[in-house]
Backbone:
């Protein structure tokens, strides 16, 4: 297998180092892989009284059991940043060796950026996320997607995630969706996820 490149997208209020329980395990599977850290910027967050946190986009609401109201312009700006990073990395490796790996809000961002990118990449790995409604307005190439979500997750509603994935599958996209009986955390169900990720990369 050619050398893989993972562009890693951390979640809300997180940076790359917070994802080490995941990235360290991925590196064990693929010791020669290139890991690109792409942290979300610091920005004012409306639901936290405009205090600054790392965030790919702002949240105007905090309802975990239906899709939150977000700043879609910031989503699009973050999308472009990730597209630019993919194009930059494509100078060093084939696009089909590049994977977006996101956790929580980073998973939402990986799905948005990957599904709106104009060329086929290796795939999208979304841990604990959902596809924002705005993404469906700009779907592009039918990327391969692996997504996982906990049935009792308390930060992104399970039904919100499932509905978005079913919507994508109904449009003919290849998506593998793992549902875990847990409140999804960084280490929760990770070994099972890694087995699925390994098969996803091997066969997609």
Residues:
């Amino acid at each position: 297998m050619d050398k893989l490149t993972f562009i890693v997208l951390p979640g809300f209020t997180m940076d790359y180092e917070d994802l080490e329980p995941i990235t360290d395990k991925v590196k064990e599977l693929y010791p020669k892989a290139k890991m690109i850290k792409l942290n979300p910027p610091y920005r004012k967050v409306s639901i936290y009284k405009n205090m600054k946190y790392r965030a790919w986009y702002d949240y105007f609401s905090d309802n975990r059991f239906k899709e939150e109201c977000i700043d879609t312009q910031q989503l699009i700006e973050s999308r472009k940043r990730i597209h630019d990073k993919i194009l930059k990395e494509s100078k060093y490796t084939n696009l089909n060796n590049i994977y977006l790996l996101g956790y929580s809000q980073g998973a939402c961002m990986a799905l948005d950026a990957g599904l709106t990118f104009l060329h086929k990449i290796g795939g999208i790995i979304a841990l604990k996320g959902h596809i924002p409604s705005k993404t469906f307005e700009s779907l592009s190439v039918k990327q391969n997607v692996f997504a996982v979500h906990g049935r009792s997750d308390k930060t992104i509603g399970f039904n919100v995630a499932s509905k978005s994935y079913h919507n994508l599958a109904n449009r003919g996209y290849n998506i593998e969706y793992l549902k875990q009986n847990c409140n999804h955390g960084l280490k929760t169900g990770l070994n099972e996820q890694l087995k699925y990720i390994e098969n996803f990369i091997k066969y997609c």
Remarks:
- The first strand starts at residue 5 and ends at 9.
- Residues 181 and 191 are 14 Å apart (CA to CA).
- The first helix runs from residue 20 to 29.
